[in-house]
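Q: what sequence does this backbone want?
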């Protein structure tokens, strides 16, 4: 789960990271008032959960409260398109009105879950402000990476290595190591998967300040962080994904293709998606109904897929181990009774209680396309989807 910049900065401030004074505003009048309260020139920043806002026109400098109101008027309600939003962009509902900083240097700093290192890695660069992927591609030497052993935790010498690597030496070394330690502590304690400060700036008066902040959290750990979970912004999420979660289907991710999948088990779901691609198709989603013997769960999966207009065929691929094929089959039958299923449904079932499942499907008269194995099912689904 992601949070907004204003939320991320508030959280980082709780960890002792210096951030500029700011206010959130939902209207130009509020933005004007916020600038007046701050009593300084401000930056007006679109609050959407995608980076690259500056390039898309979502970050504007304003010298006076009137200018702040005008800038907010231009940004609020706009559909902001940035390199990270996709072409459809994102509607801006709020702006952050923030005291302008006098920037001397823009740096990059992040802590992220590094699968290859088996722990957390701190990444820094003296080339901040811009796309770190771009720096990595064109100027890899400008990036310093230091992995932290999760058992030992963050060590000051690791902080010093990063600080030196991004040019924070002399007077700035001590505050830099403290800052990196604070960011690491936030990352670890809040079960974040990414804490990114870009740019981290050195101001003209020689202070370190987080000018931007992007935080992503591990969804599987949100149950133990009620404060973070409460920051969820449904407007930033796919409505079908939100609905799936409300229906108890945590393992649903919407994708761009046209073949809806209903599968039990994440590994089987991945294999199913691969096989669809191999057969020349594109999956419309990842959907793991989990190992549950619950007819309603299958019906709910259909509820989601039938609401997705891009789905032109459904592929049900179930290998019953702990899950029972007869329960799934009953779910398919009930879904056809309860919902208006107009699209072709290809079914591949195998495993526990297969015979009973076959009987239920056969006697129901529900018009499903049967397949013996996954390869055949994928080919039939691609054909059915046109
Ligand atoms: P992003 O484009 O979504 O990553 O948004 P940022 O918050 O990183 O802002 C983009 C750029 O605006 C930064 O890299 C800075 O160059 C600039 N910027 C933002 N706030 C200030 C400020 O207070 N003072 C100055 N001089 N520049 C700023
Ligand atoms: Mn940024």
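A:
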């Amino acid at each position: 789960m992601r949070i907004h910049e204003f939320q991320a900065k508030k959280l980082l401030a709780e960890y002792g990271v210096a951030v500029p004074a700011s206010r959130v505003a939902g209207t130009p009048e509020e933005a004007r008032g916020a600038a007046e309260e701050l009593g300084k020139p401000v930056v007006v920043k679109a609050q959407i959960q995608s980076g690259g806002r500056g390039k898309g026109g979502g970050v504007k400098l304003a010298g006076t409260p009137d200018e702040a109101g005008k800038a907010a008027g231009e940004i609020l309600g706009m559909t902001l398109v940035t390199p990270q939003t996709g072409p459809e962009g994102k509607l801006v509902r709020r702006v952050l009105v923030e005291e302008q900083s006098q920037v001397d240097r823009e740096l990059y700093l992040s802590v992220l879950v590094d699968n290859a290192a088996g722990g957390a890695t701190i990444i820094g660069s003296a080339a901040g402000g811009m796309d770190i992927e771009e720096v990595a591609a064109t100027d890899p030497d400008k990036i310093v990476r230091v992995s932290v052993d999760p058992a030992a935790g963050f060590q000051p010498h690791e902080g010093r290595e990063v600080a030196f690597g991004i040019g924070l030496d002399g007077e700035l070394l001590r505050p830099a190591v403290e800052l990196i330690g604070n960011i690491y502590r936030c990352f670890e304690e809040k079960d974040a998967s990414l804490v990114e400060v870009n740019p981290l700036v050195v101001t003209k008066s020689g202070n370190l300040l987080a000018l931007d902040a992007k935080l992503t959290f591990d969804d599987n750990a949100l149950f133990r962080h009620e404060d973070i979970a409460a920051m969820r912004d449904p407007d930033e999420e796919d409505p079908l994904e939100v609905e799936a979660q409300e229906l108890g289907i945590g393992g649903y991710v919407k994708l761009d293709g046209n073949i809806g999948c209903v599968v039990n088990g994440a590994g089987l779901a991945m294999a199913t998606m691969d096989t669809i691609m191999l057969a020349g198709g594109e999956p419309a989603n990842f959907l793991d109904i989990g190992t549950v013997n619950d007819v309603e769960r299958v019906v709910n999966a259909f509820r989601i897929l039938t609401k997705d207009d891009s789905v032109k065929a459904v592929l049900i691929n179930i290998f019953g181990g702990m899950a029972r094929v007869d329960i799934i089959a009953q779910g398919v039958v009930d879904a056809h009774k309860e919902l208006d299923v107009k699209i072709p449904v290809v079914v591949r079932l195998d495993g526990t209680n297969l015979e009973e499942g076959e009987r239920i499907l056969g006697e129901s008269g529900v018009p499903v396309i049967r397949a013996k194995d996954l390869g055949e099912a994928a080919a039939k689904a691609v054909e059915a989807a046109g």
